[in-house]
Write a structure and sequence with these properties.
Length: 381
């Protein structure tokens, strides 16, 4: 939707012009999975899909929010009252952001908000982080909070952790806030330091959502976190970021089999991220291919978060790409999406291979998104 249409929609609902639009994108992670909450490295990029939040200050303490994606539902709450869960599932994300900002002592002003997004929801592109960062950006602007992009990301993560009860790491919000066009971002999740890594111009990001129905994800996800924390404790380190394979092997007798495998994934994945950063810089497809294949193998056998549908998609794409493209599962696992890095000519080969093999073998329809890396959060006035 163009900005004019969003402004018109805002006027039709609120009978006033928006004073600005906060925009924040979805993301894909190239490599570094489940490393963020272990203080490790990740290499995501922001996408051209964005969530836009048109805003205007109100004269009272209410937040009133509409979304073009949920036309029959609105949410409103009073900033002066205790902020609790409401009846609107999506409205809770706005409450969540207000809740964590208010909890930190920020003085917030009432606003009208209208959300519009082309980030597919629940497709592994992190529409929730895009929403949290954009909404945080609207609060930041209207209430003059002086938050940096990193600050917006941290509050977005807190919103998801402490109000939405999803124990995600910092990656999704930080890349949504700080992404840069044509670049991936190497994030050190311990220091939150970021370095942009230029993506060779001839490489495309092809993201394929398996559309596998996710089940029991939260408990599995949280169990992985606990296994990682236990493993770090037994290795005598703060987080697995500080572990090495040698340390892991020394401590092996003390670890449960799952703790060992989870830690093996995280420690090996961290070193793959650093190597992949170099390979990307040098447009070294052979190395990218090997590193992403090793990441997928580790996610399948050590972290055990793939499903036959995502393993199958990776195999299908590998068959089509051979050594010309790199592929692995991406995101939170237990379904979700895979990502391929490949050149223009190979896009149609991948699409054909998925069309010919996926539905037939897995009884699911895949969604394919061909993207380039885009800019992160911005405010338009
Ligand atoms: P994802 O992988 O896309 O982040 P989540 O389940 O974490 O999936 O987040 C999706 C949720 O985010 C939706 O169910 C909805 O509550 C909220 N959301 C995302 N985009 C929008 C939007 N445009 N309008 C309102 N809510 C949205
Ligand atoms: Mg999400």
């Amino acid at each position: 939707m163009n900005l004019d249409a969003l402004s018109k929609g805002f006027k039709a609902i609120f009978d006033c012009e928006p004073t600005g639009i906060a925009s924040s994108p979805g993301r894909v992670n190239l490599i570094g999975e489940f490393t963020d909450y272990n203080d490790g490295y990740v290499l995501p990029c922001a996408l051209e899909f964005t969530t836009q939040v048109a805003f205007a200050q109100r004269g009272d303490d209410l937040i009133v929010v509409h979304s073009f994606q949920y036309p029959n539902e609105q949410d409103s709450f009073n900033l002066a009252d205790e902020i609790t869960q409401g009846d609107s599932q999506w409205g809770n994300y706005i409450r969540a952001v207000a809740f964590v900002l208010k909890r930190s002592g920020k003085k917030l002003k009432g606003m009208n908000l209208l959300i519009e997004s082309n980030v597919p929801q629940g497709a592994g592109l992190s529409s929730s982080a895009a929403l949290e960062v954009a909404v945080g950006g609207a609060f930041n602007h209207v209430s003059d909070l002086g938050l940096s992009k990193q600050g917006l990301a941290l509050f977005g993560q807190q919103a998801e952790n402490d109000f939405m009860d999803c124990q995600c790491g910092i990656m999704d919000q930080l890349i949504s806030a700080k992404g840069q066009k044509n670049n991936a971002l190497l994030i050190d999740c311990e220091s939150l330091e970021t370095k942009s890594v230029s993506i060779p111009e001839d490489l495309n990001l092809v993201i394929i959502n398996s559309n596998y129905p996710r089940k029991l994800v939260d408990s599995e996800y949280n169990q992985r976190r606990i296994d990682c924390e236990q493993a770090a404790k037994k290795l005598g380190i703060k987080t697995l970021r500080h572990g090495t394979i040698e340390m892991l092997n020394v401590a092996k007798p003390d670890l449960t089999s799952n703790e060992y495998k989870r830690a093996h994934h995280v420690i090996s994945e961290n070193s793959r991220v650093i190597k992949a950063t170099e390979a990307l810089k040098n447009n070294d497809m052979a190395s990218l291919c090997a590193l992403m294949a090793a990441s997928h193998y580790s996610l399948k056998h050590d972290f055990e978060v793939t499903v036959p549908a995502t393993d199958g998609l990776v195999e299908i794409c590998k068959g089509a790409l051979q050594s010309r493209g790199a592929v692995r599962m991406t995101g939170g696992g237990f379904g979700g999406a895979i990502v391929c890095l490949c050149r223009d000519d190979d896009i149609k080969l991948i699409k054909q291979a998925v069309e010919d093999n996926y539905t037939q073998n897995f009884n699911l329809e895949a969604s394919i998104f061909v993207c380039k890396a885009a800019d992160g959060f911005l405010i338009m006035e």
